[in-house]
Amino acid sequence: MINKIDVPVQTSILLDKVLLVGSTDYTVIGQPMVPSAKVLAIVEEHEKTEKVIIYKKRRRKTYARKTGHREPYTLLRISEIMGAKQSPL
Question: Is residue 45 part of a domain?
């Protein structure tokens, strides 16, 4: 799940700003990014999160406000990780 991006559903996107690449053998942590690491992802759907209720009240002042908020997000499916072929130090 990421913040909503304006890309049609079932479109593949390439994410090139990767912070960490890992496997069972080794892990590469970027400083701040891992060079030559890329992730290929497919946009699955655009939805909203569950509603968060915001309730404000002032005691003894007859003031009460109730609002809600739903954050839009994009659901991605990771199809391929093209990681850095570096060995750990």
Answer: yes
